[in-house]
Write a structure and sequence with these properties.
The protein is of the alpha/beta class and about 160 residues long. About 45% of the residues lie in helices and about 25% in strands. Helix 1 packs across helix 2 and helix 1 packs parallel to helix 3. About 40% of the residues are buried.
């Protein structure tokens, strides 16, 4: 599960991911991003989550990627048709004319998956919904990404003062 938070006005962005390696304990990870569009940030959040999974030795086989961004998931489906499938109705998006930050996010996902034999199963999770399971994971990733973004924003504002 991955999510991102962007504050264009304050110039801060962050990502968060919940990662469950095949062998080992699940963990949370978060970090800052350069300011970019929400869609690009969501792609970068997914890439960071996949990197964390790779670092934990789990980037192989079938990997379920959950996000509340249909655009990010559809872009991955369009860019990696041989390495990804979608759960439910998620059309592929041709992101060939997308902004540079979106292209960079797709390239990061592509490079992580290339040569691993991993197959991404893309699952859209409705954002900002109450409940347990995937909805709770999404809300938690959203909270962690937003908290990380706010800390980065507040730090930038203190430095500028």
């Amino acid at each position: 599960m991955a999510d991102a938070s962007v504050d264009d006005i304050a110039g801060a962005a962050a990502w968060a991911a919940w990662v469950q390696p095949p062998a080992g304990r699940a963990f949370w990870q978060a970090g800052t991003l350069p300011v970019m569009s929400g869609n690009a940030a969501e792609l970068h959040a997914i890439a960071h989550g996949l990197r964390a999974l790779s670092d934990a030795g789990g980037l192989a086989g079938e990997i379920v990627v959950m996000s509340d961004s249909r655009t990010a998931l559809g872009s991955i489906l369009g860019a990696l048709p041989a390495s990804s499938t979608a759960v439910a109705d998620l059309p592929p998006i041709d992101a060939a004319m997308a902004p540079a930050a979106t292209q960079a996010g797709l390239q990061a996902v592509r490079e992580l998956v290339r040569g691993t034999g991993a197959r991404l199963v893309l699952r859209h999770v409705r954002g900002h919904q109450a409940g347990g399971g995937a909805g709770w994971l999404n809300a938690s990733c959203d909270f962690l990404a937003r908290s990380t973004m706010r800390r980065a924003r507040d730090s930038q504002q203190r430095l500028a003062a």
